[in-house]
Amino acid sequence: MKRIIVQLYEIQDPREAEWLIGLGVDRIGSVILAGGISPENVFDAIGRVKPAGIDSCTQTNTRDHGGRPIRFRKDFDRVSRLLDEVRRAEEVYSNLRPSAL
Asked: Which fold has domain 2-96?
């Protein structure tokens, strides 16, 4: 099975990722969902796309005084919240995962 990394630029609403399903990307290979993945949207993104994995960078970074992410400096509270949401999604959606993944 092929592995596909899908980079979504600053996804605000996981419903924006539904075009992936329409294209049949999930039937081509394993999807790694990336781009704008945050503690606030990862649960819904996993539920809609059923990726084999996720990649979060900017949305789990520490913010400067202006609210902008500081490149490659992690906010461990945000990382912890993201992982909590991933675990919650795994529990809720585990029976929906394709058996090929």
From this structure: TIM Barrel (3.20.20)
**Closest C-alpha to 83, from 50, 49, 46, 32:** 46
* Range 76-83, long-range pairs (CB < 8 A, 24+ positions): 78/38, 78/39, 81/39, 82/37, 82/38, 82/39, 82/42, 82/56
In eight-state DSSP terms, residue 39 is T
Domain boundaries, the chain: 2-96
Tokens at 7, concatenated: 């980079």
Q: What average pLDDT does the segment 37-45 reach?
A: 90
Tens-digit pLDDT profile for residues 46-92: 888 788 888 888 899 999 999 999 998 999 999 999 999 999 999 99
Is residue 8 within 8 A of residue 42, CB to CB? The reply is: no
